[in-house]
Amino acid sequence: MKETLKIDGMTCDHGVMHVTNALESVEGVEKAKVSLKKKEALVKFDAPADLDQMALAVAEAGYKVI
Question: Residue 46: phi, psi to the nearest 5?
């Protein structure tokens, strides 16, 4: 499955790295491609990953899924 998440709070490449690492730490997430310019993340995942888990991981990294 693939999902595009809008991310709030990223201002530099460090934010991209933090969001990427947070998303890829969620069980079931295969790959996260994060764009600072678009302020979004394209996430490829399988069960048991879900959007709530991804949003929580992003929040714990200091950013917000909108």
Answer: -125, 165
How far is it, in rounded angstroms, from Cα 36 to Cα 9? 10
- Rounded to whole angstroms, how far apart are CA atoms 51 and 66? 11
Q: Give the model's pLDDT for residue 12.
A: 97
For residue 55, pLDDT beyond 90: yes
Q: Is residue 32 within 8 Å of 54, Cβ to Cβ?
A: no
Statement: residue 23 has pLDDT above 90: yes
Q: Residue for token digits 């890829």? A: 24
**Rounded Cα distance, 54 and 37, in Å:** 20
